Amino acid sequence: MIRKFRKFTKLSSREQALFVEAYYMLGVMRAAILKVSFKRLTRSLKLQAEKGELEPLTEEQKQTALEIGRAIKRAAAYTPWESACLAQSLTAQRMLQKRSIPGVFYLGATKDSERPETIKAHAWSQCGDQIITGGGKEDFAVLSVFGWEKK
Which residue range(s) make up the domain with 51? Predict the structure, then answer.
């Protein structure tokens, strides 16, 4: 436990703030996933027919988006609850939209290679040409694309 605290204190104040925000939002999103319908969770987003053109980001926006992605990944490793790809993508969407950084998140599926009768799902976030959360998307067919705009 002390080792984890030392790791946290070695982060910059910006990284610490993003970690705390990501940790909190992961909890909120996990609770929402369990208690609220998916339609209601995504009502502030616009469903896109296809990937479409992603807005190019400024260098500052790109850097902030990557920092948010790292904070979410770091925080997800320490939550006592499940912080899987959907919770991470929804957290990224909220944190990025709060900072007026546009992007999309994808929902995909593929057949499970170990159990062919089942399907595996995955969610990932993208801003510009950068994957923010949920790497390993190559094996998944895109089912839905949700975008958000600057606030």
Answer: 2-148
pTM listed for this prediction: 0.89
CA 11 to each of CA 6, 8, 71, 107, 112: distance values in angstroms, whole numbers, following the listed order: 9, 5, 11, 32, 38
User: Tokens for 42?
Assistant: 């995504």
Residue 51 pLDDT: 63
* 3-class DSSP state of 82: coil
pLDDT at 4: 72
Structure tokens at 6: 């030392």
Joined together, the tokens standing for residue 139 give: 């094996």
Tally the domains of the chain. Answer: 1
Q: With contact defined as beta carbons under 8 Å apart, do 123 and 137 qualify?
A: no
Q: Give the mean model confidence (pLDDT) for residues 59-75.
A: 96
93-147 tens-digit pLDDT: 999 999 999 999 999 999 887 887 889 999 999 998 899 999 877 889 999 999 8
